[in-house]
Design goal:
By secondary structure, the protein is an alpha/beta fold. The chain has six helices and eight strands, in the order E-H-E-H-E-E-E-H-E-H-H-E-E-H. It has helices spanning 15-18, 38-47, 105-122, 156-175, 192-200, 221-249, and strands spanning 8-9, 23-31, 55-57, 63-65, 86-93, 136-139, 205-206, 218-219. The strands form two sheets. It has a six-stranded mixed beta sheet. It has a two-stranded antiparallel ribbon with strand order 7-8. Helix 3 (105-122) packs across helix 4 (156-175).
């Protein structure tokens, strides 16, 4: 098992000894949707659920590690451990109860430090995951296979930070070279899988439904289309009722 030197070791048992080994190939970042520190996250994993992440990160940058990074944790659904033995390292980060706030500067710094260590310790490649099984760095809502019921985690603000600050920071710190854009392979165009990924990825377009926009301001295009349909149907019902009332009056 591998333990990160900057994290406080808070080992979960029996999970730490009982769960299967993995070969870490991905790092997936979450928001815990609660303003919890690393000790409270540990207590939640220990007392309230059979799930867990490898790490927990508080607003002030203090971090706990609950399971070694070469042991399976259960925060990422299909990415926890694959048939070939590969799996993802996961971290839960303190947030507000709507997961709408950005990471603090202290959280950003520790995510970058941890990302560099995972690259150096486990040779996780310095790229954003291109598919659900592709080695690299990502966030929870990036692929449907990483969540059993769909999710907006870690929230639109943090998705932007991941792409614009955190991941470029990991690359710059690991290579000693400044970068302003994620390291991704050039492609001649979008294939079907690319379009499907974009269509289902949270945080891409503005939410058109005023009833849910406060909680989820940016959502997947597929969800936005369904929300537009909901709004249109609501307006149609109001228009039908108004037409019926005017007809009755005349």
């Amino acid at each position: 098992m591998a333990w990160y030197p900057r994290a406080k070791k808070m080992e979960l048992q029996p999970e730490s000894d009982a769960q299967a080994a993995i070969r870490p190939t991905q790092f997936i970042i979450h928001s815990v949707v609660a303003p919890w520190d690393e000790k409270r996250i540990y207590e939640y994993w220990r007392d309230s659920t059979s799930l867990e992440s490898h790490f927990g990160l508080d607003y002030d940058g203090s971090m706990g590690q609950y399971i070694g990074t070469e042991t399976r944790a259960d925060a990422n659904a299909g990415a926890n451990r694959r048939a070939d033995g590969t799996g993802a390292v996961s971290i839960e980060t303190a947030s507000n109860t709507k997961a709408s706030d950005p990471w603090t500067p202290q959280q950003v710094e520790e995510l970058i430090r941890l990302g560099v260590w995972l690259h150096q310790r486990h040779e996780i490649p310095l790229r954003i995951c291109r598919t659900h099984s592709d080695p690299g760095f990502g966030y929870h809502s990036m692929f449907r296979e990483w969540s059993t019921s769909g999710t907006a985690c870690p929230g639109a603000a943090r998705i932007r930070q991941f792409r614009e600050v955190v991941f470029p920071g990991i690359v710059a710190r690991a290579t000693g070279k400044p970068t302003t854009t994620p390291e991704e392979e050039d492609v001649a165009g979008l294939n079907t899988d690319d379009v499907r990924k974009l269509w289902l990825t949270d945080g891409v377009v503005a939410n058109p439904n005023p009833d849910t926009a406060d909680d989820n301001p940016h959502i997947a295009p597929a969800t936005a289309l369904r929300n537009i349909e909901t709004v249109v149907r609501r307006l149609e019902k109001k228009l039908d009722a108004l037409t019926a009332a005017l007809t009755k009056e005349s």
